[in-house]
Amino acid sequence: MTVLDRARSPRPASPAADGTGPRTLLIRRGGWLSMRVRARTVVVVAGLVLIALVAAVVALGVGEYRVDPATVLSVLTGQNTGFDSVVVLEWRMPRILLALVLGAVLGMSGAIFQALTRNPLGSPDIIGFGIGAYTGALVALAVFGGGYYLMAGGAIVGGMITAVAVYALAYRSGVAGFRLIVVGIAVSAVLNSVNQWIVITIDLKQAITASVWSQGTLSGVEWTQLLPVAVCSAGAIVAVCALGSQLAVLQMGDDAAGALGVRVERVRLAYLVVGVVLVAVATAAAGPISFVALAAPQLARRLSGAAGVGLVGSAAMGAVLLLVSDLVAQTVLAPTQLPVGAVTVCVGGLYLVWLLITQVRRGRG
């Protein structure tokens, strides 16, 4: 892959011809691939990847048995095969990889729904798909007695049923983003009540399991749990890639997208299904982890200076947010470990306050 041209593309709001627009890279390969990538976006994604790698090295050494970063690197490069390698590779590596995968999955899911609704609050946390996935897992726990794969399957089914319900209730000769959010909030309120009723009615042992899992936790992750999550996530990401750049076109509005040849409702439904699968996979693996899907796309967009949310940047930001949050959860009250969901809720609360203040100031301006 080679960079053949470095150009300056006009800003969407002011298409001036004086060469002051954001830098872009024109990438071509073999005549079949041609794409433009904003140089600032590439730098931001590369920086986020670097932060994730550094955080991963630090997190691999955190715990009751501490391992310094130099030793972690020696284990990762195969120079240390002693007890440290067991701690790093067998005990801690699955948790770190799961945090990266789930963070990327949640960030990408949030980007999809914010693009579809064209609203920074249009995340699966707000619309209710995460709650629906949790409801499905609770039903599997109450009816079938739980088990990792049963609860995972229940989470995916619950998320899909919730998506169908929200989509059907919000459909009025098409689906408007604001209407989808309002209907999703209403459905979330109903499902929260259902979840509380289920927890109250099941036996004590199941209720404790549900309570811990409902906070969102990465504790006790093993390699056997990581593999199905990685496979399902990879399949959903392939589906996103197969849909191409139509998500960016949808952000221009239904009329503009239709004029450009996009079958709006069909494409929106396809993205909706993929987005629900992504958030359901994350919920099935670690429970409902709030606010990563809400915050990651907007933080990535502001860092990159893009006009709309991007999938790659959102995935990278989501991976960083969840991994750093899990690192904080392990260390802030050590040796007691917090559920990672408790940390992301705090981060999300601060983000919501900042977002509201920003919107108020913009409205006054």
TrEMBL record:
Protein origin, superkingdom: Bacteria
Keywords, alphabetical: Cell membrane, Membrane, Transmembrane, Transmembrane helix, Transport
Chain spans, region Disordered: 1-21
Record's subcellular location: Cell membrane
InterPro entries: ABC_BtuC-like, ABC_transptr_permease_BtuC
A Pfam family matched in the record: FecCD
Transmembrane segments: 42-63, 96-114, 126-144, 150-170, 226-249, 269-296, 303-324, 336-357
Keyword hit for Protease: no
Membrane association type: Multi-pass membrane protein
The keyword Transport is annotated on this UniProt entry: yes
Primary localisation category: membrane
Entry's family note: Belongs to the binding-protein-dependent transport system permease family. FecCD subfamily.
Name the UniProt record assigns to this protein: Iron complex transport system permease protein
Lineage: Bacteria, Bacillati, Actinomycetota, Actinomycetes, Mycobacteriales
